[in-house]
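Lecture 7 notes. Example A: sequence first, then its structure tokens.
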Amino acid sequence: MSMYKKTLAVVVGVGVMASLLTGCGGTGSDKPAAKTDKKELKIGFVMKTLSNPFFMSMEKGAQKAGKELGVKLDVQVGQEETSIEQQIAIVENMIATKVDAICIAPGGSKEIVPVLKKAQDAGIPIINIDNRIDGDAAKAAGLKPIPYVGASNMDGGYLAGKYLAEQLKGKGKVAIIEGIQGVDNAEGRKNGAKKAFAEYKDIQVVASQSANWKTEEGLNVMTNILQANPDLNGVFCANDMMAFGAIQAIDAAGKTGKIVVTAYDALDQAKVYIKEGKMVSTVDQKPDDQGYYGVKYAVDLINKKEVPMEYMVKLENITK
């Protein structure tokens, strides 16, 4: 089992305290918090993987908050975005080593719930970032409410789908390449795009398939879609990594510039493709802000301060 592990800044002396959520539904402060006077607070920061630049940006934001607040971060990830069992093992280890709080971007919305319940039972505060924990699974497990820092995936999918439909002037055949099916952020983006397409009577969704957030699977899925639908006009990919694979398939089919591609995450390579005319847009959901506020609110929970139950970062559709 391979996992990435990294530690950040350390500040002052001793003293560890853990507490449960102290406030619900408040507006909270988005201003940088003052450095904590506690000693060696340690926050477990768990992401899906670092093979996707999106999570590298998220880590940068977390590091920024860690430095500002003077806390030690234990950053760990799985090998791939689908390495959910690795994430569970990471959290188990963080419970055993008694971190003061956990920030987690879960790979699976349901699978992670039991180990997070175990963390709560151990008195460890939790902040959920990026991919939201499934509400029904959390309720069934007896999980106490966990603050969420992220973006509206429904709104982001709608932005991308709407822009794609506008580029096609409201007419044509489109496809959706989904993330991991059944996972909150993947479902939100897919449903947002479908909502936008439904506003145009002459837009037809001819395919909607998962590529599990991966470039290679995006290539294979798009190749199959093109074979079945040679007259395809556009595709919405629920992240940039899958879009990169789709673009390879489009290139191989000799259709570059003939199929409109929109995607999600605003990676640097996606911006290059937009300038080259291989994509038309990508949704920026500010992963650095998600990492920053995840750590900030974790420290607030440790210090028994009120935090918002939901903090949504601003979305932007990048088109050039």
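Example B, a different protein, same format:
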Amino acid sequence: MPLTPLDIHNKEFTRSFRGYDEDEVNEFLDQVIKDYEAVLREKKDLFEQVNTLDEKLAHFNNIEETLNKSILVAQEAADDLRGNAQKEAQLIIKESEKNANRIVNEALTKSRKVMMEMEELKKQASVYKMRFKMLIEAQMEMLQTDDWEQFAGNEEFDEEELFKEQQEQEKS
């Protein structure tokens, strides 16, 4: 058991012949008591500081542990989110590729259809051009015949006869 200032103060020494000066010893002991009390107060303060720091350390350790757990949970959530985002991105890319292929195929089909329609229109235009040309040539031949001269100079021109001649020319 450690000494207390009261133990030092109450300590009685046996007297011997030609011993130390009693006042000087008491004065020294009073100084030792003061210093010992100061050391004990300082020890008590330091002990309280250590306890306070231990409590703070425990509190911060608890916070650190909570933060570490939170970081792990957040990291797992971020990993899950990243994984889901990558899966969703892959699905979007596949869907986009399918749509792009469908659009290209539709465009090719429409393009082929338009090309076929254009070829048909060219054929029809060619046929129309040829028929129109034949009609104009027939009309020109009719204008150059003597019948036209007769019609222009003779008021008794037979329209039925002219119509029959035109039909015969068209057939030939």
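Note on Example B: The chain has a mean pLDDT of 90. The radius of gyration is 63 Å.
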